[in-house]
Amino acid sequence: MPIDLAFFLHSTTAGRVVAYYPSPAGSTESLLNLDAWAGIARNNPALERMSADVEALLVNRTRGRRDYFIAPIDECYRLTGIIRMHWRGLSGGDEVWRQIEHFFDGLCERAVELDEVAHA
Asked: What residue numbers bound the domain in which 73 lies?
């Protein structure tokens, strides 16, 4: 992925898994081919059990983090709102990165770890 912050969900409207990048312009749909998704989901059964249009795989690989959550899509859009509200200039500025860090720290505190072993 060319972007280190994304969420993936099964869209019943599109009839497939779609990827979005939360950005200062809002959630931008990726045009990447997601053919590899089937293999990833097969090796990570929790992804196959995500509720369509309700849950998403939220991925954060920014600034050395490696966070992966199955999260309600409203949390993904809340993250998008945080980015839109706090982004300044070309790199976002320090405040947006503090807010993103705070958002993911909060998810980590509330998260329930799956017993399954994930395979990248």
From this structure: 5-110
Residue 21 located in a structural domain: yes
Does a structural domain hold residue 101? yes
Which whole-number Å values give the CA distances from 5 to 10, 19, 44, 80, in the listed order?
Answer: 17, 10, 20, 10
Q: 60-98: per-residue pLDDT in tens?
A: 999 889 999 999 999 999 999 999 999 999 989 999 999
Q: Is residue 115 part of a domain?
A: no
Q: How many domains does the chain have?
A: 1
pLDDT, one tens digit per residue, over 18-66 is 999 999 999 999 877 778 888 888 899 999 999 999 999 999 999 889 9
Question: pTM of this prediction?
Answer: 0.87
| Helices vs strands, H then E, count in the chain | 4, 5
* Separation CA 16–CA 57 (nearest Å): 14
Q: Does 17 reside within a domain?
A: yes
**CA 33/CA 42 separation, integer angstroms:** 17
DSSP 70-86: EEEHHHHHHHHHHHHHH
